[in-house]
N-acetylmuramoyl-L-alanine amidase
Amino acid sequence: MSRTGRLLLGASLLAGGLLLNVPAAVAAEPGPLLAFAARIAGDDARTRVVVEFDRKPEFSLHYVADPVRVVVDLPETAFGLKADSLEPRGLFDAIRYGGMGAGNSRIVLSAKGPVAVTHAEVVAEEGGKGYRLVLDAERVDQARFDALLGEQQWTGSVAAAKTDRPVAVAPTREGGPFIIAIDAGHGGIDTGALAGETKTEEKHVTLAFAKDLVEALNKGAGIEAFLTRDKDVFLSLPQRVQIARNKGAHLFISLHADALRQKDIRGATVYTISDKASDHLAASLAARENLSDEIAGVPLQSEPAEVADILIDLTRRETQAFSVNMARAVVTSFEGQINLINNPHRFAGFRVLQAPDVPSILLELGFLSNKEDEKLLLDPEWRKKVSERLAVAVQRYREQAIASGG
């Protein structure tokens, strides 16, 4: 039954006095909030942001430094806003909004410098037409902003629980299934790249492909593939890594479809982690991908202490060797079948590839900035073909990994 139908039924039952015995949890199904309009006005001294909702929103407000951001946390919200309604201006040079998972949503206001929200309230619209959230911000000095940071009782942490179970870099002959984590890049508030005229969002492209890939992989004998995210939700980079480790993954594949200023560049690229980037393109892509948590308003976390341990460092070296083997298997499987960029195996410091004990690759399927690539990325038949070639590469890598694992 549609939402309208449920509301009409509820009104009918109420009129007949029949709602008295209906549990409150059943009677009330409000669904997500709807943010249906927004506007921003101001200058480099003061800026006002207004967002209109269909129902009264509960909200909390926090600050994040390096760079300065104002984070507004909301219950699950559907953002039905016009694309230009929150074009940044005044104190803010970027504004993003979207889901954060677990029934939460977020608005992130990236500021040009230290700011303070001097007024924040929810106001009922006249005639019962909804509510508006009003935020007034003003420029402040660094000392006052530092004081605001120190006063708030909020860390913004969304890190996944750590696992105490060791994960083998390679499966043994007698082991169970070969477990693969398929990570659809971006999600929720972090849309990833946007195609030019079509405004295709990278987060939807990667999820659609990830689902096809899991299906193709699970047809293979001895393989168990799973998604780090199965819907449009935000996961921090540490969460993605830890989900793979918690599930005992033997391989982690992160999927992306970036956009470049050079619209003539196209083709797939396979990346492995390295302290030094192979080239300028790899370095710039890694820098952008590593901004995912910043975009979502998540404070950057320091590396866990265990990563500095010498034994973990030795494990990482072995992990890197396996990651390179997987990258080579992908390139070999794609050659002559799937369009590849020049020098298709590259490396850089991608944070999502940092698991010390899970071989990991990041696969740029193509570039949304290139019209030919975009068409392919949206083509179900092409996705199926690429998934099948990846499944071949995984099986080849698996055989090598089992042999190496004894």
User: Anything to note?
Assistant: The longest strand covers residues 33-42. The radius of gyration is 24 Å.
